[in-house]
Amino acid sequence: MTTGEPPTTPRLLAVAHGTRNRTGQRQVRHLVERVRARRPGLEVDVAYLDVQEPRLEEVVTSTDRPTVAVPLLLAAGYHVHTDIPTAVAANAQVLVSRPLGPDSALAALLVDGLREVASLEPTDGVVVAAAGSRDPRAQRDVETVAGYLDGLVPGPVRAAYVTAAQPSVPQAVTAMRADGARRVLVAAYLLADGWFYRALQGVGADGVTSPLAARPELVDLVLARYDERAGGHEGPGGAT
Predict the structure, then answer these.
(1) pLDDT value at position 203?
(2) Same domain for 172 and 156?
(3) 92-116 as b/e, with b when 16 or more CB fall inside 10 Å?
(4) Among 103, 80, 85, which residue's Cα sits nearest to residue 16?
(5) Contact present, 13 and 45 (Cβ < 8 Å)
(6) Are 111 and 148 in contact (CB under 8 A)?
(7) Which residues sit opposite 95 in a β-bridge?
(8) What is the dihedral of CA 217, 108, 113, 225, to 10 degrees?
(9) What is the C-alpha to C-alpha distance for residues 77 and 126, in angstroms, rounded to an integer?
(10) Total-model pTM
(11) How many Cβ atoms sit within 10 Å of the Cβ of residue 183?
């Protein structure tokens, strides 16, 4: 007797940005492996938008079965609104879920990371550090998560960016200190290790959290995004 997911269950295709950093590659790979282990019988694959192979376009072109692409992205910028819809447009078998962020669950994971760095006090400032995007929609998503986090920690919270948007992370750290923060902690709103994460090590903060892919609870959010979209797989393709 066959067990696991029914034959008609759509495949989960995790869509990551891609990185040249070996540690970051391993973190994303382990995240996908944990998703696969959490739901035995569900086919789980991965594709990349840049740098790594296989590229999303190649996977979509060769796909001949129902698939839900889950963007492992923390904000809805250019990749979510343009790159991914363009890549899947020609294949009605592939639907796209919402990206991982923004979500209050991500703020909860940031709190867990902060508590591993320090015992949080009202005098501690927290900077939510994202990669950065010129797309105002992505910036609003980061600010939304910073707002969620503001309700979970005792001190002030600000959103900041490594590149492409303002304020920069060093500017936010400096502003927090000027406003009287005894310590400034950086909550890395980044999926995995790489250039953006390494840039946070030199911003003058008193501590930096680990990337989110390392947190086991992220699996729940990936599967939640898949389940939302898999239930309506007979609808049109494209991001929701």
Answers:
(1) 97
(2) yes
(3) eebbbbbbbbbbebbbebbbebbee
(4) 80
(5) yes
(6) no
(7) 68
(8) 40
(9) 23
(10) 0.92
(11) 18
Co-location of 116 and 164 in the same domain: yes
CATH (domain of 169): 3.40.50.1400
Same domain, 129 and 180: yes
Alpha-carbon distance of 226 to 230, in angstroms, equals: 6
Give the per-residue pLDDT at 8: 77
**Sign of torsion, CA 44 45 48 51?**
positive
* Range of the structural domain that residue 89 is part of: 11-101+216-230
128 and 94: one domain?
no
- CA-nearest of 153, 151, 147 to 123 is 153
Residue 240 domain-assigned (yes or no)? no
User: Do both 163 and 181 map to the same domain?
Assistant: yes
Determine, yes or no, domain membership for 148: yes
- Low-confidence stretches of the chain (pLDDT beneath 70): 1-7, 232-240
Residues 56 and 85: their CA atoms lie apart, in Å, by: 11
Q: What is the pLDDT of residues 53-80, one digit of tens each?
A: 999 999 999 999 999 999 999 999 999 9
For strand 94-96 and strand 207-208, is the pairing parallel, antiparallel, or unpaired? unpaired
- Residue 95 identity: L
> The tokens 């990337």 sit on which residue?
211
